[in-house]
Amino acid sequence: MLSVKEIDVCYGKAQALFNVSIHVKKEEAVLLLGRNGVGKSTLLKSIIGFLPPVKGSIFFNGKQISGKKVYRIANGGIAYVPQEREIFPDLTVEDNLAVAEHKTQNGIWNIERIYQFFNPLAKMKKRLGGNLSGGEQQMLSIGRALMTNPKLLLLDEPTEGLAPLIVRMLEEQINKLKKSGIGILLAEQNLQSAFKIGDRAYLMEKGSICYEGSTEDLMKNKDILNRYLGIR
Questions:
Q1: 165-199, pLDDT tens digit by residue?
Q2: What is the 8-class DSSP label of residue 153?
Q3: HSE, side-chain direction, 13 A CA sphere, residue 36
Q4: Which letter does DSSP use for residue 78 in this model?
Q5: How far is Cα 70 from Cα 76, in angstroms, rounded to an integer?
């Protein structure tokens, strides 16, 4: 579904990613792991088009998307949930969802389905986005992304700062999305949560991929976990 091939990405003259290659298959959840500042968010922003690579290529469903406008990449089936959530605080929950609606031939997501998927949002449809809790805003941010009927969902630190009960609910819902056929690329610091979702994992260090393997193998590799994530 997604193939990132040997990309370099820069912020101005400062290079942030070095020769990065990853891939994501349909119905697969892939983790991007690493300490803060290693390039996980940069990679997601490059895929969605905010930071086009200066070298290398990005393919989605066999078509090159690197260098395309963000809205064209989004319309092609990739949705991005940023770390900061970035919902519209002065719009209601319902308007936040409606503004992102993108109907496709086989699209299954609409406002009523979002309310079924994230039931708490149905009870606050007329509440302003800025008056929601952190967990409610995260549900709204993911719901807004699903309104575009994506084939691939990019998630940047979705559990950050959330209560354990909300984290468990998000884990369950993200796994449901994966089973429905949506590919997931998840950057996450909460390893306990990430390992419940991911099928494979890439570890990043200083803007490069330093490890690739199944989540099961990574969980057993104490040396790698300690070296790159500080887990003993």
A1: 999 999 999 999 999 989 999 999 889 999 999 99
A2: E
A3: 2
A4: E
A5: 10
